[in-house]
Structure formats: C-alpha cells, structure tokens
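Office hours follow-up: a student asked to see two folded examples consecutively, so here they are.
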Amino acid sequence: MTSDTGRVVDIRERLVQLAMQNPNYEVADRSVTLAGYQIRIAKSQWLATISAQGNINEFTINPKSTGSTNGAANTIYYPKYNFGINIPFDIFTRIPNNVKMARQTYYIAEANKNEKYREIKEQVLTIYEDYLLAKATLEFQIQVTQDEYTLYKRAEKDYSDGIIKLEDFDKAYKGWTAEEITRLSALRNLNVIKLTLERVIGVKIDDLIKQTKP
C-alpha cells in the first residue's frame, strides 16, 4: 500500500514538473528574467545621465601659438583648462522612481509566474484525476460488457436449443450491445483525456507510468 501511494505521489510530482515546461509557463518565466534586466538598466541610468565636459586652452598645449616672444605675456591666458559636470535637475527623483517602477514590474512578473505555476499545476492534476476516473470507468465497463456478452452467448445457445423464446434472446442481445456501446464510449473518453493530458505534459502518459513503476 505504501509503495502504491509513493508511486502515485511520484507520478503527480513528475506530471507537474513536465507541465512546467509548457510554453505558457516559459513565457511567464522569461517575463521575470526580462523584468530583472529592466531593473539593471534603470539603475545604470545614473552613468548615462551625468555627463562631464572640459577643455584646455591652446596656450597650455603650445605656448608659442600665442605669438608672444616672452613668457611673461603668456601668463594672461587663464584659465589654462576647465572641467565641468552636467547633472540634470530631476536626476535625484527620476532615476530612483524609474528603479522603483522597474522593481514593481519585476514583482508583477514574479506574481504572474507564481499564479501561472498554480494554474498549470491545478490543470494538470485535475486532468490526471479525470484520467484516473476514465480509466477506472473503462475497466469497470469492460467487466460489465463481458458479463453481458456471456449472458448473450448463453441466451443464444438456449434459443438454439429451444429453451427460451425469441424475445428473450433479443433482450439478451440488446443488453450486450448497449453495454458494448457504453464500453466504446468509455474508451473514447479515456483516449481524449489522455490526449489532453499528454498535450500539457509533452509525453505519453503510458510511458510515464511505466517509468514510475517500482
């Protein structure tokens, strides 16, 4: 009993793991990664916003270019160089707000990812429950159909031997055909549910069950 329970749990965990490879979940996961990059970009805007500029006058580079014949005259050229930094007035509010917005976008993407995880997990486990029900229903219906077929074959012999009337034979035949139609319907339902489940997990459920057998 413990082994069967452990195997069921293992199958469920494996179903969820496979379902997480679904493209819908991959999109949510990549959205989180993209939002993380946006935070980095927002933080790096400090360097892109602040600009530095400077210049050196010609005398500093080439004193002779002034045309003066003595060094004293050259001292009138001031400043020899200048340097400045351009800082926008809104830098201390705009960039922090951009970072906050990027973080909120990340939190939203993370929340969407978690919600998508819960949604896909619920979906795959619900389909698996439908699969178990359809499988059990088919197994039960196979037995019922087999019993009806046995009754039908017995009625066929009894009618051939003149033990029962035609209406009794006809009743047994209709009982078997009705159960056979029900069996075919149950088989169809199981196959459809298997297709739905396999579309979510990306592998055949029969193969997965074989892999998880103890």
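And the second, which I mentioned at the end of office hours:
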Amino acid sequence: MSARHRRKTVVLADDQSIVRAGLTCFLGHESEFDVIGETGDGLRATRLIQRLKPDVVVINVSLPGLHGLEVARRVRELLPFTGVVMLSPFASPEHVVEALRNGVNAYVMKQASPVELLRALRNAAAGTHFISTPLSKVKPLTRWLKDAAARGRDPYDTLTNREREILQLVAEGFTSAAIGRRLSISPRTAEAHRAAVQRKLHLGNQTAVFRYALARGVVPAPIRVFPGMPLVRNAGE
C-alpha cells in the first residue's frame, strides 16, 4: 500500500469501554483508519500515545487520572503532527474555546452522526479544524478559532504538568499516599505538589480544590444514586 493510501492509525481514550469497543468496530469497517490502541485512563493515554505515535487520537473530554483537555495539550506538545479529535457532551462556548486553545483539531458532540465523526477524523489527520454542526451554526469555525486565540492566561496555566496531575487526583479523592503510588513518587513529594497547587490557585482546602476542579471541568459532576448521596468515583484508598 502506498504512503498516500496508507490507513491512518488511531488511538482511542474514553472512560467507557463500550464506547471504545463501538468506535473500534465502526472504524474497523472503514478503509481509512486503523485503531492501534485504546485506554480509559488519561494518564495511561499520554504514555500510550507517546509510545505509538498515531496519526490521530480520539479523546473523551472527561477521563479519570488526567482529563481530556490536558491530554490534548500534552499530545500537541509532544506530537505536533498528531491530529486530535475531542468527543464531548458539552456545547458551551467555554468548553469549545478551551479545547481549541489546548490544541484540539476537531470538537465533536457525542450525539454526532458517524458521518460527522469521519469528517472530524479526516480533518484532524490532515491537520485542519472541524466543529460539530450544532456549534458551527452558532458561529463559523473562523470565529471559534479567533476566540480561542484571544483567550488570556489564568492561574491554571502556571501549574506544571505534575501539579495538574495532582490537582485532578486530589479532586478525585486520592490521598497523598495513594497519589504517590499512582505516580511513583513519595507521599511527601505528593504533599509538596498538593501544597503548591493550592498556593498557586489560592485554594484553602480539599473542598475548594474539588469545587475548582469541578468548575473547570477537570472532574465531572458526581453522580447521585440516592438524593443527597454522591457516588464517589475513586476514593483513592
């Protein structure tokens, strides 16, 4: 097969295994793309993508360990020629602009049609941009890109990669000891990073960290199984 007609390689990062299986099956019937890896965890996704160096990655905006926007940003830094497609249930301008600002090529609503997803994958593989139809009707792609370019820096941008990982894991309920095991660092180092995160973001306690992460989309809103009782996604220990 010539390089021109080579199947584009794809890595999937979605926390729902049934979604990954469905996308793998769907793309397996297409002649253009070949899924070469998949994971449901953001931290593992960055390592997997860096190792496999795919043509395109498909990332869910909500991932445990490291959220989709941060995975996208790291892919753009490490593999500038890898296309990034973000799957998201969110149609708010803030989510779209932040995704584009973090290097996403294509922003696709989760209710989009398979045809639209294929268009997004093709655009991302070619290094161009794509926005789902409901969003492109709000304003043209050029306006979305202009808004993303105009977005200023905020305190979150001062965090290091490790501090962003710590922020999410703290918000997910991990203790310093559990964070240490997860990231292969000592509990004391984890605690130092945690203190730096709170200092840089002016957050006084665990509750403030969780609220900040929730408002920023770092962690999704907790699922309630009974009134007043949140389902803890990961207690850490």
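Two things to take away from it. The chain has a mean pLDDT of 88. The two ends are 50 Å apart (CA to CA).
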